[in-house]
């Protein structure tokens, strides 16, 4: 897959100095994602509670229907909580690393039928080809991420350990880890104490996805 370069008439959005989460734009994006996550969670809790009360007071058919609705609500709650924890991991990275601009990504897991998550990509470098294969996943689905990231992305992290990839401006942040973790062990061994310390503070030092 070829990498399309950024059109010259598209405005550049430079990141501000400092850690990525110091950027007010990024704080607003994370706040918006958190609201969207809780928007899914709170109704599910209320519905499950109401259904439980009605089931206790209703007939047996109503109780069976209530059980099915309650199961669906529990699934919704589990998804919402998982998304909230995923956003927390992303924010932990953004508190440690600054944003850096990259020329784009090359997607390796294209599926003609539907988008998949996690996504397998390579990050472009300004003058040194491509990164190793990375696996990245968003907090919430973003169907146009590939078109938006084809020619420019922001990256916060260390390719040897992982990080966060986003559309310029910080939109659609995706937690990212090397796909072949063990193959990069020699590169991680060359990291100095400060680099390892930053990866640990960001929650990236371990193999766990």
From the structure above, extract its key features:
single chain, 209 residues, alpha+beta, 7-stranded antiparallel sheet, 5 helices, 42% helix, disordered N terminus
End-to-end CA span: 26 Å
How would you state the average pLDDT, rounded? Answer: 81
Rg measurement, Å:
20 Å
Q: Supply the helix-strand structural class.
A: alpha+beta
Number of helical stretches of at least 4 residues? 5
Number-wise, the strands total 7
Question: Secondary-structure blueprint of this entry?
Answer:
Blueprint: H1 24-57, H2 60-94, E1 100-102, E2 105-107, E3 119-123, E4 134-138, H3 145-149, E5 153-158, E6 162-167, E7 171-178, H4 185-189, H5 193-201
Helix pairs in contact: 1-2
Fold and architecture overview:
The protein is α+β, with helices and mostly antiparallel strands and about 210 residues long. The protein is about 40% helix and about 15% strand. The protein is built from 5 helices and 7 strands, in the order H-H-E-E-E-E-H-E-E-E-H-H. The chain has a 7-stranded antiparallel beta sheet. A hairpin with a 3-residue loop joins strand 6 (about 160-165) and strand 7 (about 170-180). Helix 1 packs antiparallel against helix 2 (about 60-95). It starts with about 25 loop residues before the first helix and ends in an 8-residue tail after the last helix. Residues about 1-10 have low confidence and may be disordered.
Short recap of the structure:
The protein is of the alpha+beta class and 209 residues long. It has helices at 24-57, 60-94, 145-149, 185-189, 193-201, and strands at 100-102, 105-107, 119-123, 134-138, 153-158, 162-167, 171-178.
